[in-house]
């Protein structure tokens, strides 16, 4: 065994003994590692990670040693690589070699960890695949106001799981919300009669991810407004005040839909349009003619453009009082 290898193994054993004997808080572990050597050689690092395992999760140990110690030395990181195609983020010193690293159990495995690749190795397992969607996959007639739900979780006790929601009308939906901590998401004002796609990507606190399947559902189709009813003045009414206002009632079968109205009114049948996009079911036609028949109807329209034309109603205004002329008086010349 050459001198460099012997020194490395001895230091590794010292590291093992130190960590095994005294479980330290994370800040002290970092401090002790830096005192021992500002940039640990690969064998020391692997041994240290192994010995931290009784104290913390192996990925926590890797993050502690590699992130806070190894990558802190930029000068060493520039030129000291071991098989860069295999370990692009693991700096070591000459005369360290891949053969030396391979003598340490799991050295290659732990050396492959990087700050950007925390999942897929070691003791961490990725989250469970998201499942049990609500609405169920392929559901139809789904309310335009719905709470999406799914199940998730993680096989590693204590791991936090976050969810990214992809949602839209494209078959490969775009990201809508990220880092959700609940297994649900409330949706509102969805377009009626529309096919939506969605999926969930679960991510644990080590950035290991599991992508769920793409699910779909179709919202309830839009229904047109109900026919306008209850006209005032009443249909075929007579003796209607010439200053009367018009009003009616109308509703929509889809909860939340708002309505606007076009009013057709006049003495011709069919009458012309005199009001458009009215937001209230009432209209002041102004003073009307006496003893005249008027015709009117309503076109109701919802926010999605669906329309319903109501029946034509009519009424006749009052004729007004007819009094005889006054008796002639005050003759000139005066009556004698």
Task: Note down, in words, how this protein is organized.
This protein is α+β, with helices and mostly antiparallel strands and 336 residues long. The protein contains seven helices and 18 strands. It has helices at 3-21, 26-36, 42-52, 58-68, 74-79, 98-102, 107-111, and strands spanning 131-134, 139-142, 146-151, 161-168, 175-180, 184-187, 195-204, 209-211, 215-219, 229-232, 237-240, 246-249, 259-266, 273-278, 282-283, 293-302, 307-309, 313-317.
Short structural summary:
The protein has 336 residues and is of the alpha+beta class. The chain has seven helices and 18 strands.
Key phrases:
single chain; 336 residues; alpha+beta; six-stranded mixed sheet; 18 strands; 29% strand; disordered N terminus
Write the layout of secondary structure elements.
Elements: H1 3-21, H2 26-36, H3 42-52, H4 58-68, H5 74-79, H6 98-102, H7 107-111, E1 131-134, E2 139-142, E3 146-151, E4 161-168, E5 175-180, E6 184-187, E7 195-204, E8 209-211, E9 215-219, E10 229-232, E11 237-240, E12 246-249, E13 259-266, E14 273-278, E15 282-283, E16 293-302, E17 307-309, E18 313-317
Parallel strand pairs: 2-9, 11-18
Antiparallel strand pairs: 1-3, 3-6, 4-5, 4-7, 7-8, 7-9, 10-12, 12-15, 13-14, 13-16, 16-17, 16-18
């Amino acid at each position: 065994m050459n001198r460099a290898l012997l020194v490395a193994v001895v230091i590794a054993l010292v590291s093992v003994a130190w960590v095994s004997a005294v479980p330290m808080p994370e800040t002290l572990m970092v401090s002790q590692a830096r005192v021992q050597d500002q940039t640990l050689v690969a064998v020391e690092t692997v041994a240290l990670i192994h010995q931290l395992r009784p104290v913390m999760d192996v990925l926590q140990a890797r993050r502690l040693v590699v992130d806070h110690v190894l990558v802190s030395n930029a000068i060493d990181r520039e030129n000291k690589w071991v098989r860069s195609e295999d370990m692009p983020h693991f700096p070591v010193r000459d005369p360290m070699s891949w053969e030396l690293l391979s003598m340490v159990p799991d050295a290659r495995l732990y050396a492959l960890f990087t700050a950007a690749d925390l999942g897929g190795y070691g003791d961490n397992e990725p989250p469970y695949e998201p499942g049990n969607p609500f609405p169920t996959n392929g559901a139809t007639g789904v309310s335009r106001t719905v709470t999406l739900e799914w199940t998730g979780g993680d096989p590693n006790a204590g791991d936090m799981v976050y969810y990214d929601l992809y949602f839209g009308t494209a078959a490969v939906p775009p990201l809508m919300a990220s880092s959700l901590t609940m297994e649900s998401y409330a949706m509102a004002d969805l377009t009626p009669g529309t096919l939506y796609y969605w999926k969930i990507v679960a991510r644990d606190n080590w950035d290991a991810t599991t992508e769920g399947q793409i699910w779909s559902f179709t919202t309830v189709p839009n229904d047109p407004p109900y026919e306008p009813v209850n006209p005032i003045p009443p249909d075929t009414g007579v003796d209607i005040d010439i200053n009367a206002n018009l009003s009616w009632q109308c509703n929509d079968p889809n909860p939340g839909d708002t309505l606007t109205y076009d009013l057709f009114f006049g003495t011709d049948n069919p009458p012309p349009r005199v009001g458009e996009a009215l937001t209230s079911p009432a209209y002041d036609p102004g003073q009307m003619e006496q003893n005249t028949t008027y015709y009117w109807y309503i076109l109701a329209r919802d926010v999605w453009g669906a329309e319903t034309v109501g029946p034509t109603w009519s009424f006749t205004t009052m004729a007004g009082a007819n009094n005889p002329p006054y008796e002639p008086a005050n003759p000139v010349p005066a009556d004698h």
